[in-house]
Specification:
The chain has a single domain, classed as dinb family like domain (Four Helix Bundle (Hemerythrin (Met), subunit A)). It contains seven helices and no strands. The chain has helices at 3-15, 24-28, 33-37, 48-66, 90-113, 116-119, 130-154. The radius of gyration is 16 Å and the shape is globular. The chain starts with a helix and ends in a 10-residue tail after the last helix. It comes from Lentibacillus amyloliquefaciens. This is DinB-like domain-containing protein. Residues 24-148 form the DinB-like domain.
Length: 164
């Protein structure tokens, strides 16, 4: 198996293909607006929506860099800023999810059509190549998907029995 095929498999498992952990599209499918903004009583954890905003920030930033559109990439002074929510409305929750799904798929398309030498070319504004950045993003996504599932379980929104 070549590196692109392996990475495409990892990338898909973060969005819409079942693997060892549930893909984000399925995890978020039944999350209500109220569940998306909920935080545990101590409020030290981020909400589901804040986590999705964080994932979107980094994926959108990399997409803009891959496309050479660095002027359009999202900006944050510190990592905590990447969890910032838009105005808390049901419509904005839906928009955040849809934008994340779109950006994730666009990065997957770039990966799918990349030639071998493209995979190892350094990305403008990054220290690493496309293959290393997308590998790291996939691991980052998997980590936060686990947090989102945990928050869902804390709210009783996660099914008691799953086929995993």
């Amino acid at each position: 198996m070549d590196v692109r095929t392996l990475l495409l498999q990892q990338w898909a498992s973060c969005l819409d293909e079942q693997d060892w952990f549930p893909p984000l599209e399925k995890v978020l499918a039944d999350i209500t607006f109220e569940q998306a903004i909920w935080k545990p009583a101590d409020e030290e954890m981020n909400s589901i929506w804040e986590l999705v905003c964080h994932l979107l920030f980094y994926e959108k930033r990399y997409l803009m860099r891959f496309l050479g559109e660095t002027a359009n990439e999202p900006q944050a002074e510190v990592n905590e800023d990447t969890f910032r929510l838009p105005t808390e409305t049901l419509e904005n929750w839906k928009k955040t999810k849809q934008e994340y799904f779109y950006v994730h798929r666009e990065l997957g398309k770039i990966l799918a059509r990349s030639e071998h030498e493209d995979l190892y070319r350094q990305i403008p504004g990054e220290d690493n190549s496309l293959v290393l950045e997308l590998k790291s993003l996939a691991m980052h996504d998997a980590y936060h998907i686990g947090q989102i599932v945990f928050l869902s379980k804390m709210q009783g929104a996660w099914p008691g029995k799953r086929s995993l």
